[in-house]
Specification:
Blueprint: E1 7-12, E2 18-24, E3 27-34, H1 47-69, E4 78-84, H2 88-105, E5 109-113, H3 114-120, E6 136-141, E7 146-153, E8 156-162, H4 168-178, H5 186-193, H6 216-232, H7 236-267, E9 271-275, H8 282-295, E10 298-300, H9 312-324
Parallel strand pairs: 1-4, 4-5, 6-9, 9-10
Antiparallel strand pairs: 1-2, 2-3, 6-7, 7-8
Helix pairs in contact: 1-2, 3-9, 4-6, 4-7, 5-7, 7-8
Length: about 350
């Protein structure tokens, strides 16, 4: 524990959520997220609309984060922000704001990798949540990313498996779109899956060597299956929606668990942490817990509010970098394809 109080203001703007958080010595004092409902009409995030909404939201969101934390900007030790990966326009809004604020307050600026932040969210001091020991395997699953990462220390990470096409969150959302569900469809599929039979319909799992993933073929298979069944029975979706959702979710979870089993076998590491928006899925959480009994895993799931895009996860990375004196220069640039 540091001898002085370290206050980190963190800003996250990688996609369509504008978020700000204030952290004191590893503990979250506030975590504010403003979503953008405007994208629902389009069935996905529209980058230009997202960046405009960030411009409208960022000042009130930061102001609210400071207010809820009861912290004045003069108390801040540093400003942390998401440098990438993400939508370039969205990233530029957060990056520009963070740089300007840090410059105006004469305090350090800290750039954060969004994917590292999903993993390091596990190290936020939160009562009732255990932190994974090094080394551990992290599975980051979201609308834009699907990765298995070997985490050797806070900033020593190796991506050992990733999707070669679509992310798992996209597979959920596109499947939902085929079924006529709203955007994002993942939470609705999860809800309906609990009411259906997961083995009602069988979908073939894509065959991908090693620890990489593929979800493109599965989406196509689901589309053709639905088209065929609806042709035979126009009411098929309506009559069997819960079973369809349960079967889709069962297949996707099976793909993820199969790769985790292979990763633990190859690395010998049995501590597994998940992060990213799709880790909020109750079926995935249940499958991980079952893995503890079946395969001898020890699993770590962060607090729900730290799974989807949020600034608390940016704050913990900012705090850890602050302790190491790892600061960014004012000419740091946003990077839409930033790698771990």
């Amino acid at each position: 524990m540091p001898t002085q109080n370290i206050y980190i203001l963190a800003i996250e703007s990688s996609c369509d959520d504008t978020a700000a958080s204030v952290m004191l010595n590893g503990k979250i004092l506030s975590n504010v997220v403003a979503g953008q409902s405007i994208h629902e009409a389009y069935g996905g995030v529209v980058p230009e609309l997202a960046s405009r909404a960030h411009q409208q939201n960022i000042v009130p969101v930061v102001d609210q984060a400071l207010s809820r934390a009861n912290v004045d900007k003069s108390q801040l030790s540093a400003i942390a922000f998401t440098r990438g990966p993400g939508l370039m326009g969205s990233l530029l809004v957060g990056t520009s704001f963070a740089k300007s604020l840090a410059y105006g307050l004469h305090i350090p600026l800290i750039d954060v990798n969004h994917m590292q932040a999903h993993i390091l969210a596990h190290f936020i001091d939160e009562e009732g949540f255990e932190k994974p020991p090094f080394p551990f395997l992290a599975m980051t699953i979201s609308g834009g990313h699907t990765q298995i990462v070997q985490v050797n220390s806070y900033f020593d990470m190796d991506v050992i498996g990733e999707t070669i096409d679509d992310a798992v969150g996209e597979a959920f959302d596109k499947s939902g779109k085929i079924l006529g569900l709203g955007y994002p469809a993942g939470p609705e599929i999860d809800r309906r899956a609990k009411l259906g039979n997961p083995k009602a319909f069988k979908f073939t799992k894509p065959r991908v060597d090693g620890l990489n993933f593929s979800f493109s073929g599965l989406k196509t298979a689901i589309l053709y299956f639905i088209q065929k069944e609806v042709k035979a029975n126009p009411n098929f979706i309506e009559e069997r929606l819960n079973d369809i959702c349960a079967s889709i979710q069962y297949t996707i979870i099976g793909i993820l668990i199969d790769k985790l089993k292979l990763a633990t076998k190859q690395t010998g590491i049995t501590h597994i942490a998940i992060g990213g928006g799709v880790s909020a899925n109750t079926g995935i959480r249940e499958a991980l817990k079952n893995g503890e009994a079946k395969f001898g895993w020890t699993t770590y799931v962060p607090k729900f509010e730290f799974t989807t895009d949020n600034a608390a996860m940016i704050a913990i990375v900012g705090y850890l970098k602050y302790l190491e004196g790892d600061f960014a220069a004012q000419n740091v640039m946003a990077s839409s394809r930033l790698k771990i």
